[in-house]
Known about the structure:
Blueprint: H1 5-19, H2 28-34, E1 37-42, E2 51-56, E3 59-65, H3 70-86, H4 101-118, H5 121-131, H6 135-142, H7 146-155
Parallel strand pairs: 1-3
Antiparallel strand pairs: 2-3
Amino acid sequence: MGRTREAIRREAEKLLQASGTLRAPVSLRDVVSVLNLSLVEKAHEPFAAEAALTTVGDGRAIELNGPVSERRRRFTIAHEIGHFVLHPGRVAPERGGPTNVASGRQEREADAFAAELLMPEHLVRQATLEEGADPRRLADRFEVSEQAMTIRLQRLGLVERQSDLLPPSRGVL
Length: 173
């Protein structure tokens, strides 16, 4: 049975409160610290996942594989935090291994959690009041990709269509 978006939002909100996050961008260092997780950098392995939850000694860690942009890395870390919070005891499928409906659902839930964690609704709504619904500017403010912010704005109903994201026309046709 999957989790509702509301349940995922509540879990992310509890974690933000526990980490003392009051403004954007969310400090993932503070969030990871509250969960007693470690971040471990690995040398780039071809065809390996960008990140995975692993066991390190007596604790858990998010293992990061290879270079990616900082904004993508932030979303990836938040995604893995989502698995840690929402799917305790989860074992990721082996590279190239079979996936099933449950693992696909868990991936979507972890993505939704990452969006809720990095772009909390109340902060995104406040930012749009202050700056408008420009995904590029808001992505900079929240340190996420423009694509992630565009999707978040659409899901929150702050933009309805892709054309809402285009700059206003300056000339007369």
